[in-house]
């Protein structure tokens, strides 16, 4: 069939641009298959924190799908521009737009079939490999088995069928709306200089300044969570504005420097780029944003995975802990009985009785009051727990004495320098601020601001009564019911310790039923359990982070490659004329180096700059996960940046050869 044969010959003739497009699209098929295998695995339901893990992979799957649509359409637009001259020639030779549409339909169909066959075969292989990697990272159990169902395969095929249909409709629209002479000339058409460059440049500087300012001035991790996406949007707008407008301003500035401009390599590079910088600016901004996304994604997920043990110990200063609205002696007896029944020795068992936490808002230095309305800044929220002085003396083995309205104040996070403190309607004199309290180690996590307030035994009930009155109209709740915290360690293997923890939960459930309650207000925490579930979460995060990072790197590579081809084809005739009038091969090579260095290293420099300014807000966000080790985050980020810059240099080195072959005779 004529159209079928023409389509085949066209793909073969344009293999230099279609092969990278096909390989990149096959890669996106593989990514989607991997995510489908992970998401629709029945064993996912048996995991610790199954809902959170499924939500994480569901989000990752959606992001990869969106990325596939945008990436495939964006890279395909390079192909249609590259082929417009060829399509215009077909049109002049007698093929009308209907014939061209049929021919392009076969081209898209062949490309789709090649991509899907290659993608599915490769996807099955790589899905199995990545499945084993994920299982190793997370410690998923035996229930989590490799399962690529027909439904998952159908979802991926349907997605890419829709993508290729949209690209075909776009190609058809581009051909039908253009005249033959436009098709012939459009492939070489340059971009006009954008107007209102200074307005865009000022807008870009302003957006970047505000985005950077948010990152540098943020104080609370909760505040960072709410403002992070605002900062991201501002930085993206600023990046595009500066690359489009600022690049032209820079080139015109260089053009005005006669000593710099009137040199062969500089003259050719600047004069050739200045008329096409609107298109270049948008492409370079896209590369910059993709590089930034890759750096942020990889560095944060790697940091979370590497620092998972620090996070666990920060959340669990003791191996096991129980918080219950029961007498401490009763809880202690239940713990010892459960351990004895499972033949696991108990050691370092300690306990303390306190009030429930009274959440207040810091209004000024040393003044904390219940908030009657909704909270606007959760960074000012502080918790207070009131404890009898006798409990403090028993635990610390001291004999402290307090007068009326005197307190010993222990800040769980940070310190306290005031001589008095006001909590609601009550003011207390601070007698002492100890540096440590054995049952509540200092926390580096500033999201958990709180105080332990040790008060005279004879004032304890009256203080709680006053706090209860203060909280009657508060946005927070307060209960006078006392809480017991029991802390202990278990010997034996991890399995034995987890068995005791499960036994304790069952014992408390039975106790609640005997008391006529659906369940007691009891929380049993275990470092071993947290480590197990944390490995699942952090391993999943690392896996998705690597997938996202690879996606962004592949997208960056392909965009740079097509930009080099596009620039090389546009510059070919100009360099040919220059060589005919005497420009040597050495001078051509030097000119190419100047142009590529000036343009293609700018995105990675700006991406690293973005990451540097984003570091404070990223650090705050990771505190929400429990990662407070700033040195670890800095080291991991530095290593990731170094590896990424090396990869970027390799991409530049390989693609610059493509450009050089295109422009030189």
How would you describe this protein?
The protein has about 675 residues and is of the alpha+beta class. It has helices spanning about 1-15, 15-40, 50-80, 85-90, 95-140, 150-175, 180-185, 195-215, 220-255, 260, 265-275, 275-305, 310-315, 330-340, 390-395, 460-470, 495-515, 525-580, 585-600, 600-625, 630-665; strands spanning about 320-325, 345-355, 360-365, 365-370, 380-390, 405-410, 420-425, 425-430, 450-455, 485-490, 520-525. Among the domains are: about 1-190, no CATH class; about 320-525, no CATH class. It has 21 helices and eleven strands. The strands form two sheets. The protein has a seven-stranded mixed barrel with strand order 3-4-7-8-6-9-5. Strand 3 and strand 4 form a beta hairpin.
